[in-house]
Protein backbone atom coordinates (compact mmCIF):
# COMPACT_ATOMS: atom_id res chain seq x y z
CA UNK A 1 0.00 0.00 0.00
CA UNK A 2 2.66 2.55 0.98
CA UNK A 3 4.81 1.44 -1.96
CA UNK A 4 2.09 2.58 -4.37
CA UNK A 5 1.61 5.86 -2.50
CA UNK A 6 5.35 6.53 -2.59
CA UNK A 7 5.47 5.76 -6.29
CA UNK A 8 2.75 8.34 -7.00
CA UNK A 9 4.20 11.01 -4.68
CA UNK A 10 7.75 10.69 -5.95
CA UNK A 11 7.19 10.12 -9.65
CA UNK A 12 9.66 12.17 -11.68
CA UNK A 13 11.56 13.53 -8.66
CA UNK A 14 15.33 13.76 -9.03
CA UNK A 15 15.91 14.31 -5.33
CA UNK A 16 13.65 12.95 -2.60
CA UNK A 17 13.28 14.82 0.69
CA UNK A 18 11.97 12.98 3.77
CA UNK A 19 11.04 14.49 7.13
CA UNK A 20 10.66 12.19 10.15
CA UNK A 21 8.42 13.57 12.92
CA UNK A 22 7.71 12.63 16.53
CA UNK A 23 6.55 14.66 19.50
CA UNK A 24 9.76 16.29 20.78
CA UNK A 25 12.28 15.37 18.07
CA UNK A 26 14.64 13.89 20.67
CA UNK A 27 14.03 10.12 20.47
CA UNK A 28 12.20 8.47 17.59
CA UNK A 29 12.49 10.95 14.73
CA UNK A 30 16.21 11.72 15.19
CA UNK A 31 16.84 7.97 15.45
CA UNK A 32 14.97 7.39 12.17
CA UNK A 33 16.89 10.33 10.69
CA UNK A 34 20.25 8.80 11.67
CA UNK A 35 19.33 5.27 10.62
CA UNK A 36 18.04 6.39 7.23
CA UNK A 37 21.08 8.58 6.57
CA UNK A 38 23.38 5.63 7.26
CA UNK A 39 21.32 3.29 5.05
CA UNK A 40 21.36 5.87 2.25
CA UNK A 41 25.14 6.31 2.54
CA UNK A 42 25.63 2.54 2.43
CA UNK A 43 23.38 2.27 -0.63
CA UNK A 44 25.31 4.93 -2.55
CA UNK A 45 22.22 7.16 -2.94
CA UNK A 46 23.62 10.02 -0.84
CA UNK A 47 22.88 12.75 -3.39
CA UNK A 48 19.46 11.40 -4.28
CA UNK A 49 17.74 11.46 -0.87
CA UNK A 50 17.80 14.15 1.80
CA UNK A 51 16.69 13.47 5.38
CA UNK A 52 15.63 15.73 8.24
CA UNK A 53 13.58 15.37 11.41
CA UNK A 54 11.37 17.63 13.49
CA UNK A 55 8.96 17.60 16.40
CA UNK A 56 5.43 18.71 17.06
CA UNK A 57 6.48 20.09 20.46
CA UNK A 58 9.01 22.91 20.39
CA UNK A 59 10.16 22.65 24.02
CA UNK A 60 13.33 20.77 23.03
CA UNK A 61 14.30 23.07 20.14
CA UNK A 62 18.06 23.21 19.69
CA UNK A 63 18.75 20.16 21.87
CA UNK A 64 20.59 17.03 20.83
CA UNK A 65 18.61 13.79 20.92
CA UNK A 66 17.96 12.25 24.34
CA UNK A 67 21.26 10.96 25.76
CA UNK A 68 19.81 7.46 26.21
CA UNK A 69 18.82 7.28 22.55
CA UNK A 70 22.27 8.51 21.53
CA UNK A 71 23.93 5.80 23.66
CA UNK A 72 21.77 2.99 22.29
CA UNK A 73 22.12 4.26 18.71
CA UNK A 74 25.91 4.62 19.03
CA UNK A 75 26.15 0.95 20.03
CA UNK A 76 24.61 0.14 16.65
CA UNK A 77 26.86 2.49 14.72
CA UNK A 78 24.61 5.55 14.46
CA UNK A 79 25.79 9.00 15.53
CA UNK A 80 22.75 11.13 16.29
CA UNK A 81 23.88 14.75 16.03
CA UNK A 82 20.69 16.42 14.78
CA UNK A 83 19.45 19.37 16.83
CA UNK A 84 15.74 19.31 17.63
CA UNK A 85 13.50 21.69 15.75
CA UNK A 86 9.75 22.14 15.51
CA UNK A 87 7.74 21.31 12.40
CA UNK A 88 7.23 24.41 10.23
CA UNK A 89 4.48 25.10 7.72
CA UNK A 90 7.17 25.38 5.03
CA UNK A 91 8.04 21.70 5.67
CA UNK A 92 4.90 20.77 3.74
CA UNK A 93 6.39 22.49 0.68
CA UNK A 94 9.98 21.46 1.29
CA UNK A 95 9.51 17.69 1.81
CA UNK A 96 8.11 14.94 -0.38
CA UNK A 97 7.32 12.56 2.50
CA UNK A 98 6.49 13.52 6.07
CA UNK A 99 6.64 10.46 8.30
CA UNK A 100 4.80 10.43 11.65
CA UNK A 101 5.96 8.00 14.32
CA UNK A 102 2.58 7.39 15.92
CA UNK A 103 -1.09 7.99 15.18
CA UNK A 104 -1.19 11.23 17.16
CA UNK A 105 1.75 12.60 15.13
CA UNK A 106 0.11 11.43 11.91
CA UNK A 107 -3.26 12.98 12.75
CA UNK A 108 -1.75 16.29 13.89
CA UNK A 109 0.45 16.54 10.80
CA UNK A 110 -2.51 15.88 8.51
CA UNK A 111 -4.49 18.47 10.44
CA UNK A 112 -1.73 21.08 9.94
CA UNK A 113 -1.35 20.35 6.23
CA UNK A 114 -2.31 23.45 4.26
CA UNK A 115 -3.56 21.58 1.17
CA UNK A 116 -4.88 18.18 0.13
CA UNK A 117 -1.59 17.56 -1.68
CA UNK A 118 0.37 18.34 1.50
CA UNK A 119 -1.91 16.05 3.52
CA UNK A 120 -1.14 13.23 1.07
CA UNK A 121 2.59 13.56 1.86
CA UNK A 122 1.98 12.49 5.46
CA UNK A 123 2.53 8.78 6.10
CA UNK A 124 2.90 6.53 9.16
CA UNK A 125 6.27 5.00 9.96
CA UNK A 126 4.57 1.82 11.15
CA UNK A 127 3.31 1.22 7.60
CA UNK A 128 6.91 0.43 6.64
CA UNK A 129 7.63 -1.77 9.68
CA UNK A 130 7.06 -5.46 8.90
CA UNK A 131 8.73 -7.32 11.76
CA UNK A 132 6.51 -6.11 14.61
CA UNK A 133 2.89 -7.03 13.82
CA UNK A 134 1.85 -6.51 17.45
CA UNK A 135 2.38 -2.72 17.11
CA UNK A 136 0.27 -0.22 15.21
CA UNK A 137 2.68 2.69 15.92
CA UNK A 138 6.30 3.28 16.91
CA UNK A 139 6.16 3.71 20.70
CA UNK A 140 7.81 6.62 22.49
CA UNK A 141 10.71 5.24 24.57
CA UNK A 142 11.15 8.43 26.61
CA UNK A 143 9.58 7.00 29.78
CA UNK A 144 10.85 3.48 29.18
CA UNK A 145 14.06 1.74 30.13
CA UNK A 146 16.76 0.38 27.85
CA UNK A 147 14.34 -2.15 26.36
CA UNK A 148 12.16 0.68 25.04
CA UNK A 149 15.04 2.33 23.22
CA UNK A 150 16.23 -0.98 21.79
CA UNK A 151 12.71 -1.83 20.61
CA UNK A 152 12.33 1.52 18.87
CA UNK A 153 15.72 1.13 17.17
CA UNK A 154 14.77 -2.38 16.02
CA UNK A 155 11.49 -1.09 14.61
CA UNK A 156 13.11 1.90 12.90
CA UNK A 157 15.86 -0.20 11.34
CA UNK A 158 13.17 -2.47 9.90
CA UNK A 159 10.98 0.42 8.75
CA UNK A 160 13.77 2.54 7.28
CA UNK A 161 15.15 -0.44 5.38
CA UNK A 162 11.72 -1.16 3.91
CA UNK A 163 11.17 2.50 3.09
CA UNK A 164 14.48 2.71 1.25
CA UNK A 165 13.58 -0.42 -0.76
CA UNK A 166 10.24 1.22 -1.64
CA UNK A 167 12.05 4.40 -2.71
CA UNK A 168 14.34 2.40 -5.01
CA UNK A 169 11.28 0.97 -6.78
CA UNK A 170 9.72 4.42 -7.24
Class based on secondary structure composition and strand pairing: alpha/beta
Q: With helices defined by DSSP (H or I, 4 residues minimum), what is the helix count?
A: 7
Q: Radius of gyration, rounded? A: 15 Å
What's the total count of β strands? Answer: 4
CATH superfamily: Response regulator
Shape: globular
CATH topology: Rossmann fold
Average pLDDT confidence is: 93
Low-pLDDT residue intervals, each spanning 5 or more residues = none
Itemize the secondary structure elements and their pairings.
Elements: H1 2-10, E1 16-22, H2 28-43, E2 49-55, H3 67-75, H4 91-94, E3 97-100, H5 103-112, H6 116-120, E4 122-124, H7 146-169
Parallel strand pairs: 1-2, 1-3, 3-4
What this model shows, in words?
The structure is a single chain. The chain contains 7 helices and 4 strands; from the N terminus they run αβαβααβααβα. The chain has about 170 residues and is of the alpha/beta class. The protein has one domain: Rossmann fold (3-Layer(aba) Sandwich), CATH 3.40.50.2300. The chain is globular and about 40 Å long. The model has no long low-confidence stretch (mean pLDDT about 95).
Amino acid sequence: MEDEKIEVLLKGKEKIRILFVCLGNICRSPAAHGIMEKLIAESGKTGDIEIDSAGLYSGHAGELPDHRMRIHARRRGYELTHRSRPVKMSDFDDFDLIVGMDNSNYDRLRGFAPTVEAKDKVVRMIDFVNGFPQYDYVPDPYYEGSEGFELVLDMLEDGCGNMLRALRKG
